Amino acid sequence: MNVLAAVGRSVSGRTGRTAFRRRRRLRAGLLQLVSVGVGLGLGLAVPEIGRGPLLPSRQVAELLLATGFGVLGAATVIFSVLFLVVQWAATTFTPRLTLFRDAPIVWRTFAFVVGLAVFCATAALTIAGRDEVSLVVPAVMGVLLLLLLALLRSLLLQAVAAIQLAPVLRSVSERGRRGLDALRASGPGGAGGPENPAGPGRPAGRGRLRSTVGWPGSGTVLQRVDTGRLAAAARAADAVVVLRVSPGTALRHGTTVAEVYDGELPASTVLRALETGAERVFDQDPGLAFRLLADIALRALSPAVNDPATAVQAVDAMEDLLLRPAPARVWAHEVADRAGTVRVVVPRPGREDFLRTALDDVIPAARNSPMVLIRLRALLENLRGTGHGRVDGPVGRRLAWVDDELDARFPRLRDALAKERAEGGDRAEGDTGRVGEERPDGG
């Protein structure tokens, strides 16, 4: 039974309001409200301090108002830097790179600016009818200004790092490593339990299909799945929810997002556990790191840029991620309730998906760049040598693809590489023989 028509527009208006998004918006808005409240409280309390040297209140009030209006210019600096860095990253690296835009330092600095402006205005109004005021008032203002300068310094340093290649690759790689570690922990053999032998489509041992849940809204991207909330709802209905999409998947109107087995579970309950947005995020999507690294390499290999050294650096970062343990192919992550009964099944990507995202677009783009082709070949050789791929598997097929490109476009280079490998093997055998001669005891 398809419940898409029964859900209608009433559900699509609520699906975006998931727990994840509410918490994120609450944190951002709460930080600004707290800053305003703290500034207002300090502005009312600090002028009441009567200790220390006294200053004419008129001059202090003028200083406070000048500082309060002056620090608002810092907000202009913040958003100017944000705009320039985002534009630079989009045109130089990839438009999907949002590391600086989402950095907490940007919005924390903005909240501090707002709080400081509120403090200065409140304190100036509080001391307006007095003759003298304690030196503590301008002293507190000075300390807050020093803190603001420290935040602005950190903001500018992070902005500079966001437009340099090496820090960007390091940030993407770090987020990719965290995603792969989480994937391994929940994958086959990890903390998440064994792989579902029935695959992501239908959990083994379950009853009949009760309903399918389609996406009732417009085009969007699945960012996160609140599996805990969904498992609790499925337990209450004695149902099993099998998701047909994983985080990072583009959703279109009518796309089947889940199937409900055994019990009756409203589609609105399933949809409320899905957080969607305009773009992919790192939290539950380890493939995003490979997508960004491939984008950087492709832009560097474009005829307009022609920067193969940058592409090689991106391939270096890819290799670091591809060498990490991960399930071989798409698998089913099973989430159980407190009683140990599986209630939610989520499809998760495997190493074949990461290889496809990272290399299948870069290899044809690098056909005119021997530097990148050689580096890609070394990456695939390393993968094959560490047990992450077999000669006749996905790694072997891509290795043969790179060899074909080298044979077709750079035959002399291909011969030179083969000769170097042969000479390296001969030297290794010679070294082994000499070691055996030096140690006749065979130890």
Please describe what this structure looks like.
With 443 residues, this protein is α+β, with helices and mostly antiparallel strands. Helices cover 60% and strands 11% of the residues. The chain has a 5-stranded mixed β-sheet with strand order 3-7-5-10-9. A 3-stranded antiparallel β-sheet has the order 6-4-8. Strands 1-2 form a two-stranded antiparallel sheet. A hairpin with a 5-residue loop joins strand 9 and strand 10. Helix 2 packs parallel to helix 4, helix 6 packs parallel to helix 10 and helix 9 runs parallel beside helix 11. The longest helix has 36 residues. It starts with a helix and ends in a 5-residue tail after the last helix. The N terminus is likely disordered.
Describe the SSE topology.
Layout (H helix, E strand, L loop, with lengths): L3 H12 L3 H27 L8 E3 H36 L11 H23 L5 E3 L1 H27 L2 H22 L22 E6 L5 E6 L1 H10 L3 E4 L6 E2 L4 E6 L5 H6 L1 E4 L9 H15 L6 H15 L8 E6 L5 E7 L2 H9 L2 H4 L4 H16 L8 H16 L1 H28 L5
Parallel strand pairs: 5-10
Antiparallel strand pairs: 1-2, 3-7, 4-6, 4-8, 5-7, 9-10
Helix pairs in contact: 2-4, 3-4, 3-5, 4-5, 6-9, 6-10, 9-10, 9-11, 10-13, 13-14, 14-15
Mean pLDDT equals: 84
Report strand order across the widest sheet.
3-7-5-10-9
| Biggest β-sheet description | 5 strands, mixed
- Helical segment tally? 15
The count of β-strands is 10
The best one-word shape is flat
SSE pattern:
HHEHHEHHEEHEEEHEHHEEHHHHH
